[in-house]
Design a protein that fits this description.
Blueprint (H helix, E strand, L loop, with lengths): L3 H27 L5 E8 L3 H13 L5 E4 L4 H5 L1 H9 L3 E4 L27 H19 L6 E2 L6 E2 L2 E2 L11 E2 L19 E2 L5 H14 L2 E6 L1 E2 L6 E2 L1 H13 L4 E3 L2 H18 L3
Parallel strand pairs: 1-2, 1-9, 1-12, 2-3, 4-7, 8-9, 10-11
Antiparallel strand pairs: 5-6
Length: 276
């Protein structure tokens, strides 16, 4: 018989292997039986979304999530185009009605007094987000969608305003960078990588890391080929889309709402799977 210490080491190793296998199985289920999931998100409802991004995604048959600010003139002026984008499978996500940000934080000189989240009440923030949902429903006819925190700000006076919106959305996207397996994803504050000037090789390398670690990767774009102070070159964006298309059998690319629904189902099933 093996010494007790050797048996304990073997048992510990087997337990770690089982936990790892269970975690991989859970993520594989959440990632639609692929290596990883990639979500392409685009913030602020700008002309570049419709001029550059939607045609680029459609050309390689990929779908993304566009987080719309309800008060954006680009929403009002180009509403039929947003509706057509939704009809082709892109998600129209909620980026609040007025895009309020916390003006009390450092580097927030761009925040106007009218749209200063630090001067909002929680009820005002919640009401404006819900009003934007009404607008988005009028555009796409859908009720299931996700939310993106303007400027990544989560709280008003220390209170997480999204807590009152949990039943209004499938999930909410934040701005903290990170790759996570399905079990570790916080559906109230999903990690994302904000892109500003990085190369196509950098974007593809992030995807490769997600493939190797079997995790969720969310890209956060603003301008694509211009139109915003935060921007990515058209060629770099095109390189990323081509890589994703070429590896569609290994990478699940879908709108945030679809990926979040899969994660929610996988997380709900995990405790049941651990029952004897």
């Amino acid at each position: 018989m093996l010494p007790l210490s050797t048996r304990l080491i073997s048992l510990t190793g087997a337990l770690f292997l089982a936990a790892g296998t269970a975690g991989f199985a859970q993520s594989a289920s959440a990632w639609n039986n692929r290596q990883c999931a990639v979500v392409l998100t685009y913030d602020d409802a700008i002309d570049a979304d419709l001029d550059h991004v939607v045609p680029a995604l459609d050309s390689v048959r990929l779908r993304g999530t566009f987080y719309l600010i309800g008060s954006s003139p680009v929403v009002a002026r180009r509403l039929p185009e947003w509706r057509r984008a939704a009809q082709r499978g892109h998600e129209l996500g909620n980026h609040a009605l007025m895009h309020p940000c916390d003006g009390s934080l450092p580097g927030r000189g761009f925040v106007t007094p009218d749209n200063d989240l630090s001067k909002y009440t929680v009820s005002r923030a919640v009401s404006e987000v819900r009003a934007n949902n009404v607008l988005l429903n009028a555009i796409d006819g859908k009720t299931a969608r996700t939310f993106a925190y303007p400027c990544g700000d989560l709280t008003i006076g220390g209170v997480k305003f999204y807590d009152q919106l949990r039943t209004d959305f499938v999930a909410a996207r934040g701005v903290r960078a990170g790759l996570q397996p399905a079990a570790q994803v916080d559906l109230t504050d999903i990690n994302s990588y904000m892109i500003n000037g990085q190369s196509g090789d950098y974007l593809i390398n992030l995807v490769k890391q997600a493939q190797q670690s079997h995790t969720l990767l969310v890209f956060l774009f603003h301008g694509v080929g211009g139109g915003h102070a935060l921007n990515v070159d058209l060629q770099a964006h095109r390189q990323l889309l081509r890589y994703l298309r070429a590896h569609e059998k290994e990478i699940w690319v879908a709108p945030m709402v679809e990926v979040a629904e899969k994660i929610r189902a996988a997380q709900a099933a995990a405790p049941a799977q651990r029952q004897p």
